[in-house]
């Protein structure tokens, strides 16, 4: 995720595990960052005077959103408590701090520019912005001490001090109260860690907005700028449900992503807005057998002309969907939290599914190779586009091409250079 998103945002391929820096940076070595920072599409949009936004259902400091704004030798340095002492001593800045200090950091890195900072930020990950002190807990904190920061800083209050015109929200009520036509800056952190799976969203203590609603609100704020906007939206929990081996959760969040894309299409002009939809990697997720038309995608394979499930050579039915590795089979019934499966022993290999409801939210597909978590895979992923420059997206595309398509459509480099004042 880190390497691919860095390539998509900067046009430069890099190594796995690093954020916003070239391959000359060695993962985990703070001293190799300086001089190897890359410029991202979001940063170019900022310099060009456009509004900018990042949304994710994962922690906003997670690899994909972080690659739009941060420069780090390790994707896991989400807050200072995640960093080795040597990196802190050497002066490397954690990812959450880089988000709050984005404006000053960018202006210090590139001379002759004047930016106003990221306008809309929404996602999970409050723990990385709050001090390790119960007095800083949010009203809906799940842990006795919500914050992880060991430097005593409260980055939420720092952001509020820096942007007096900004609105900070932590729940659905606060989100719904935001008037996008009269809001210039929005910071939303809706969970201590990742946001809820879409299937679990209604179970959240304080309530969370959906990805489609966040997308709509963000566009309605960002499009107030006549210079236009750049926005990155991630449905991060699709990935997490796959890692948990739960196709139901992945599918539910993928459907919500589709709704968010539809909302973005509805709220923008296709003649002047490029929308790209893609992924940063695949999973070891398979679709197998010869199920007849109309057979439930989460169901057992029922062949054409049959009314009962097809039996494998071992005399047991099998599902259309499966995973090559991971935690394996779970029969958790109506459980909608895909991560609940991690609490059970790994159970891979074939299971008798005859009386198991494989369409239930809590069913986790069989897996072959026992691992603590299902892994990514190596297939090419799809990339789809609509609007100016969309014709450049066809066939098989290198990951770093995405940046160049965006640059072509919005003329980001030239627009940014035109705003830069010579020192």
Description:
By secondary structure, this protein is of the alpha/beta class. The protein has a domain at 2-234 and 269-282 and 381-419: Alkaline Phosphatase, subunit A. 26% of the residues lie in helices and 13% in strands. The protein has 13 helices and 14 strands. It has a 5-stranded parallel sheet, with helices on both faces. The chain has a 3-stranded mixed sheet with strand order 8-9-12, with no helix packed on it. It has a two-stranded antiparallel sheet with strand order 6-14. Helix 8 links the parallel strand 3 (167-169) and strand 4. The longest helix is centred in the middle third of the chain and has 21 residues, at 247-267. The model has no long low-confidence stretch (mean pLDDT 97).
| Spatial gap, N to C terminus | 36 Å
Helix content: 25-40%
The biggest beta sheet, please?
Answer: 5 strands, parallel
CATH class of the domain at 2-234 and 269-282 and 381-419: Alpha Beta
Shape: globular
Name given to the CATH architecture of the domain at 2-234 and 269-282 and 381-419: 3-Layer(aba) Sandwich
What is the CA-atom radius of gyration, in angstroms? 22 Å
CATH superfamily of the domain at 2-234 and 269-282 and 381-419: Alkaline Phosphatase, subunit A
Question: Helices and strands, in N-to-C order?
Answer: HHEHHHHEHEHEHEHHEEEEEEEEEHH
Structural class by SSE content: alpha/beta
Considering the chains and any ligands shown, give keywords for the structure.
alpha/beta, Alkaline Phosphatase, subunit A, 3-stranded mixed sheet
């Amino acid at each position: 995720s880190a390497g691919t998103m860095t390539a998509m945002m900067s046009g430069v391929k890099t190594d796995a595990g690093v954020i916003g820096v070239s391959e000359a940076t060695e993962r985990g070595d703070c001293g190799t960052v300086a001089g190897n920072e890359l410029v991202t599409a979001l940063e170019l949009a900022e310099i060009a005077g456009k509004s900018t936004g990042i949304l994710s259902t994962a922690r906003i400091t997670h690899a994909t959103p972080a690659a739009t704004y941060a420069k780090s030798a390790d994707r896991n340095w989400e807050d200072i408590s995640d960093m080795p002492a040597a990196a802190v001593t050497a002066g490397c800045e954690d990812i959450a701090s880089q988000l709050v200090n984005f404006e000053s950091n960018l202006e210090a890195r590139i001379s002759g520019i004047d930016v106003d900072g990221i306008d809309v930020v929404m996602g999970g990950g409050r723990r990385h912005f709050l001090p390790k002190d119960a007095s800083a807990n949010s009203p809906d904190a799940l842990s006795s001490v919500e914050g992880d920061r060991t430097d005593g800083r409260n980055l939420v209050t720092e952001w509020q001090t820096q942007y007096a015109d900004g609105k900070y929200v932590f729940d659905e009520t606060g989100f719904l109260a935001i008037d996008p036509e009269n809001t210039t800056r929005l910071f939303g952190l809706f969970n201590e860690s990742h946001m809820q799976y879409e299937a679990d969203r209604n179970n959240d203590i304080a309530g969370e907005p959906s990805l489609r609603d966040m997308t709509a609100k963000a566009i309605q704020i960002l499009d107030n700028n006549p210079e236009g906007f750049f926005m990155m939206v991630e449905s991060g929990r699709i990935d997490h449900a796959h890692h948990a081996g739960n196709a139901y959760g992945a599918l539910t969040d993928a459907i919500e992503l589709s709704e968010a894309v539809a909302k973005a299409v509805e709220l923008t002009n296709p003649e002047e807005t490029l929308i790209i939809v893609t992924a940063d990697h695949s999973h070891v997720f398979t679709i197998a057998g010869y199920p007849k038309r109309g057979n439930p995608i989460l169901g057992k394979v029922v062949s054409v002309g049959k009314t009962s499930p097809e039996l494998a050579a071992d005399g047991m039915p099998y599902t259309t969907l499966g995973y090559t590795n991971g935690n394996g089979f779970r029969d958790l019934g109506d459980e909608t939290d895909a991560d609940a499966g991690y609490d059970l022993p790994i159970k891979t290999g074939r299971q008798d599914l005859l009386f198991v409801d494989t369409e239930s939210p809590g069913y986790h597909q069989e897996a072959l190779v026992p691992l603590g978590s299902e892994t990514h895979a190596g297939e090419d992923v799809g990339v789809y586009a609509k609007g100016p420059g969309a014709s450049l997206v066809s066939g098989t595309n290198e990951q770093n091409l995405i940046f160049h398509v965006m640059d072509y459509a919005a003329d980001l480099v030239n627009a940014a250079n035109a705003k830069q004042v010579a020192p």
